[in-house]
Amino acid sequence: MTTALRIGQGFDVHAFEAGDHVTLGGVRIPHAQGIKAHSDGDVVLHALVDALLGAAGLGDIGIHFPDSDPQWRGADSRQFLRHARALLQQRGFAIVNVDVTVLAEAPRLGKHREAMRANIGADLGLAADRVNIKATTTETLGFVGRREGIACQAIALIEQT
Length: 161
What we know:
Blueprint lengths: L4 E13 L3 E4 L2 E4 L3 E2 L7 H13 L5 H4 L13 H13 L2 E11 L9 H12 L6 E6 L5 H4 L3 E12 L1
């Protein structure tokens, strides 16, 4: 039997606004600014949802959870991730692994990384070693470097079961 592997990638960006925390990977992280977004603005989960949906050929997060729909105002993005997993399972796909890179000057993510991995692993039914979270700065370049916002890119590998 041949295994059918598929790769998807996702990217998300949000501007900062007044606030006292950001939510990344389902973890509330104290920060001098908040995220300007319709939902909770979790760039990690938004990019990851897009990667999963893309791998399965199911469009993107905006198709499934449009920001024009008031029911998603302030929504916890973990429900988006669990929904993406359910869609993949319904179509006979299993998630092999996911890899995420957060682009931000601040906040620092080191002490939050394991909690983020645990949330994502729980929502996707993956062992911790199949969820990778990385962070990098942009060396003060661009909107991320000027601390105007935060971005994330994600990749997901799925297989037909």
